[in-house]
Specification:
It is a single chain. The protein has a domain of 119 residues: 3-Layer(aba) Sandwich (Aminopeptidase). 33% of the residues lie in helices and 27% in strands.
Length: 179
């Protein structure tokens, strides 16, 4: 796929180091790998995606369905320097939460380089400007200290313990008002 920048139909936004765009079915191989990272299974959950065809179906029923229903969803994060897809970040509207949820997941090779904070901060600014969001939430397992640290960097604070369907791990809700 050629480079995606302003004016391209998949383009959402960009930061100094990143391009953030819609996830397309052509991204199935990347999504298959991300969804099957041990860290994804541990902290987000096993989505049962084991083939590229199942990844394409996941993209259609997840991100693409969210784009159609809400105008936003999880987006693909790519490094500008080489166009490499490194993770996903975006906004989710869940029936179980009153506020829009910021979500992110990155391949471990790209952890601890500031990409998650950079993309999530940009997504929150975009959500405020484009969708008029006034509050954002985040769901995180209590033992996921890396994500909790990131949420705190973004200004989200602990709200309460959360019972999350299908999750036996202790889960916390974080949130913050947006400017």
């Amino acid at each position: 796929m050629r480079a995606v920048g302003p004016g391209h139909p998949l383009f959402v936004l960009e930061t100094e180091r990143l391009t953030i765009r819609l996830i397309a079915e052509d991204d199935a191989a990347f999504m298959l790998g991300l969804l099957n990272e041990p860290s994804f299974h541990q902290y987000i959950g096993d989505r049962g995606v084991r083939t590229e065809e199942e990844a394409r179906a996941y993209i259609r029923s997840g991100p693409v369905a969210s784009y159609e229903a809400h105008g936003f969803g999880l987006w693909l994060v790519l490094r500008k320097e080489d166009g490499a897809p490194i993770g996903i970040c975006g906004l989710l509207k869940r029936d179980t939460l009153p506020d829009v949820d910021v979500g992110f997941a990155f391949r471990p090779a790209y952890w601890s380089q500031g990409y998650a904070v950079e993309s999530a901060a940009a997504v929150l600014t975009y959500g405020t400007a484009t969708f008029g969001l006034t509050r954002v939430a985040a769901i995180v397992q209590a033992d996921n200290q890396t994500s909790i640290h990131l949420l705190k960097k973004l200004g989200l604070g602990f709200v309460r313990h959360l019972e999350w369907p299908g999750n036996t791990a202790e889960t916390h809700l974080y949130g913050r008002d947006l400017p």
